Amino acid sequence: MTETRAASPADTPVEAPVEVAWHAEAAAVVLAHLGSTRLGLDAPERASRLVEHGPNTIGEHAAPEPWWRELAGSFTEPLPLLLIAVAVLSAVFGEVPDAIAIAAVIVVVAVVETVTELRAARAINALRTLTAATARVITPRGIMEVPAAGLVPGDVLALDAGDVVPADARVLSARGLRADESTLTGESAPVGKAEAATAADTELAERSNLLYAGTAVVAGEGRAVVVATGAASELGRLGRLVTDSAEPPTGLQVALGQLARAVLVLAVASSVAVVVLGIATGQPWREMLLAGLTVAFATVPEELPILVVVLLAVGGRQLARQGALLRRLRAGETLGAVTTVVTDKTGTLTENQLRLVEIVGSRDTVLGVALHCQDPDGPAREPMEIELAAAARRGGVVRRGEQVAVFPFDPARKLVSRAWRSGDKVRLAVSGAPEAVLARCRLDEHTRGEVDDQITVAARRGLRIIAFATRELPADPPAVAAASREDLETDLIYQGLVVFVDPLRPGVPEAVATLTAAGVATIMITGDHPVTAAAVAAQTGLPTGALLHGGDLSDRTDAELDAELGHGTVIARATPATKHRVVALLQRRGEVVAVTGDGVNDAPALAAADVGIAMGRRGADLARAAADVVLTDDAYPTVVTAIAKGRNISAQLRRAVAFYLGAKLALVAVVLAALATGRPVPFEPVHIVLLEIFMDLGASVAFVAEPAAPAAMRRPPRPPGTRFLDHTTLRAIVLVAAALTAITLPTYLITAADTTDVDVARAATVLAWLAGHALIAWTLRAQPALAWTANPAFPIWAATATVAGVLVACTPIGALVELGGLPVAALGPIALLVLATSAATAVLTRVLRLRTQL
Questions:
Q1: CATH homologous superfamily for 267-303+647-853?
Q2: Which long-range contacts (CB under 8 A, 24 or more apart) does 724-729 make?
């Protein structure tokens, strides 16, 4: 980590900031740069630096967006602005009830959007829960506990097992100090920490002398000087990446923008055409102005936002029951378009829970050595220690003797050892990295070769290995305690190996296979070791792709890296910035990217992705806050469920929108055609409201309840960049418009020719529309022959609309909406026309392959 230090008040003015690679400098140099000592800072200096650097908090000053501003923003989108204009015109021309109805629709849509956004907002303040509430600080007057928010660069921390690191800090001294950095680096095993400097080009995951804010100390004790606080820490940098990541617009948002522009042109053109055509045929100009306004009202899909919200909300609720919570409704539609999944390894594909799977050597002997390498005065804290202690307990293995010397874990030596006296004997128990232990053991070539082969096989399988050894020491405890560990940890007797696995989550290989069959590529990016990453990728069933090292990617151009990104690519030792870069490259070439992860290191990529998917139970708060979807069951197969449901939501949304817009187009066509013949307008505004109740509520409920097409997850997603209103959707719109026009226009013209009562002609037209529109929608279903019990909403919608049409057309109820008087004898021809047109539409739907392409 490189940090810029501003001058302290005691310093002389500095012309330029000093760049310090803290991990590459000796501890004394770090303290000098920070203007501190091993005894820390006095109170006046701490207060001065707090003013200079600000509180050690992340996102504290980012106030949430006020509700009123969120609400105001909902009124500034193109479609609401167009609706507002229509409402104003309605009021000007005296259609106050229509104006009120439209205004109510606008307000409802705006409130729904605002409430959804406010509930989904989990701002960067979630980061604060990842850091420690207090910290123990060393000062010239002794150790004191202070709020973590009050830490400043130069403070010296006292750290013990169980502490959460409150700020980025350079280790000054350590005794067996180890930290769990899995949520930051992706490395599942605890990392040893020591004072020694490391090379300047050392990767973040291997900087053994730095501790990072938000990580946990799992073993040992130490002292460290704070080098970065708040936004300057690694955790803060991740926060900035999250907030700086612009969420890409979804296909639905783009489509609604396109739709608003197209509808504006259509509404204006239709309104003008009605006025001109009506006056040209001798109609009163005032009535034609009102008729033009009616057409504008019929043309503008003012209920479309509600239709979309209902479809997404119901789909989101169904997803929640299956373990995937939509934090942003629009993500439901985007899920169906995903072409690439970029997944983390630790905690996402694997459980991030090391388990003992094999002991090589005498089980009781190895477990005995393992137990004697652990602290006898406290419970085991590290996952591997916990597993070994439990195995020893089950096997009846116990500690024997008295501890006489302790040599804590040293990240340079990669060993931990403890000496124990039992009777007149003193024995040294040693554990550590296999290469470090074996280098100090007496082994013949044959045995060493066998052990090396065992280690190689386990490493290729992505397993974690610890080696164990012992040594009998002279029976003189004081001499043992005074001896150097270099002298004692030599000439060891090899006892065996213990093998651990971070197991795959259940169902991961099947999930990867399903995504592959569905045409969705999978790329793994992890902070773990390349060998481990490659082994886990193979276990998941991913094909052998490029294996890249995150440390080498800074030397590659975007074009070079982009060429390596494909199905099965694995990037190990990756930083959060690397994940973020990969997501941006994939999006730049048109991919729709889903990112899965659980750690704070995944948050920037989760925020930048088209769909961020976070683990809910064990995921970090920042990861959940940055995500669009949270898996409440932490099950990777739920990703497949979410994508499958997203495809269904997207498909049903296209079907519903195609039907809805086709019906709107039919309304305009029928009105214009009637005026062209010199007839009155077939629909009054109140009739249009009646029709749209069934179009909106009926369509939204019926389509959203549709099951997925049988082959939805056996074909690739829609090509990236495909417009929501593509050629297939446009064909469906035209077909629906033509079919409804073919049903309603002849009905109106024939009935109007047979009667002088325009209300009777309008009654016949409304009946034909209500009876026909649900049947036309039926032809767009992916499975028209689906049993009615699978989705009862469709037959209920069709039956209810038909009954309502008969009631308003043929009974006194119709007087409430200025309809009625249609003879019962007229029902036969209308029914024949509706059925014939619906059958023809069904044939054309199959010919145009709309069922499989929508």
A1: Calcium-transporting ATPase, transmembrane domain (1.20.1110.10)
A2: 724/251, 724/252, 724/254, 724/255, 724/258, 724/654, 724/657, 725/255, 725/258, 725/259, 728/850, 728/853, 728/854, 729/654, 729/657, 729/658, 729/854
Selection from 812, 835, 803, 821 nearest residue 763 by Cα = 821
Strand partners, 21: 2
The pLDDT tens digits for 622-654 are 677 778 888 888 889 999 999 998 888 888 888
Q: Which two tokens stand for residue 580?
A: 């973020």
* Cβ(302)–Cβ(83) below 8 Å: yes
Catalytic residue among 98, 163, 344, 375: 344
Q: In terms of pTM, does the model score above 0.85?
A: no
Token pair 């920490």 in the structure block, residue:
193
Of the chain, the end-to-end C-alpha distance in Å amounts to 51
- Mapped onto helix, strand or coil, the DSSP state of residue 343 is strand
Instruction: Give CA separation, 781 vs 242, 655, 742, in Å.
Output: 40, 8, 20
* Mean pLDDT for all residues in the chain: 82
Task: Give dist(CA 629, CA 320) in Å, integer.
Answer: 10
Per residue in 361-399, pLDDT tens? 999 999 999 999 998 876 666 778 889 999 999 999 999
342 beta partners: 523, 595
DSSP result, 701-751: HHHHTPPPPTTGGGSPPPPTT--TT-HHHHHHHHHHHHHHHHHHHHHHHHH
What are the residue ranges of helices labelled H in 518-557? 530-540
d(CA 460, CA 286): 83
Measured CA distances, 206 to 24, 130, 220, 575, 723 (Å): 12, 22, 18, 12, 46
580 in Cβ contact with 563 (< 8 Å)? no
In contact, 646 and 639? CB cutoff 8 Å:
no
Spatial separation of the C-alpha atoms in residues 104 and 98, rounded to whole Å: 10
Q: Residues 635, 640, 644, 649: is their CA dihedral positive or negative?
A: positive
CA distances from 844 to 45, 189, 657, 736, 751 (A): 81, 61, 19, 11, 28
3.30.1360.30, 1.10.260.40, 3.30.2130.10, 3.40.50.1000: CATH of 340-352+505-634? 3.40.50.1000
Percent share of the chain, pLDDT over 90: 33
Find the DSSP H helices in 35-175: 43-53, 67-74, 78-92, 96-120
The residue among 710, 703, 722, 697 whose CA lies nearest residue 804 is 697
Determine if residue 162 is left, alpha or beta; phi over 0 gives left, psi from -120 to 50 gives alpha, anything else beta: left
pLDDT tens, residue by residue, 329-360:
778 878 988 999 999 888 889 887 888 999 99
**β-bridge partners, 398:** none
pLDDT digits (tens, 9 = 90+) for 784-815: 888 888 889 899 999 999 999 999 999 988 88
pLDDT at 242: 62
Known catalytic residue at 344: yes
Residues 821-850: tens digit of each pLDDT = 888 888 999 999 999 999 999 999 989 888
State pLDDT tens for residues 745-764.
999 999 988 877 888 999 99
What is the CATH topology of the domain spanning 355-501?
A: Calcium-transporting ATPase, cytoplasmic domain N (3.40.1110)
Measured distance CA(842)–CA(699) in Å, rounded:
18
Calpha distance 40→743 (Å, rounded) = 86
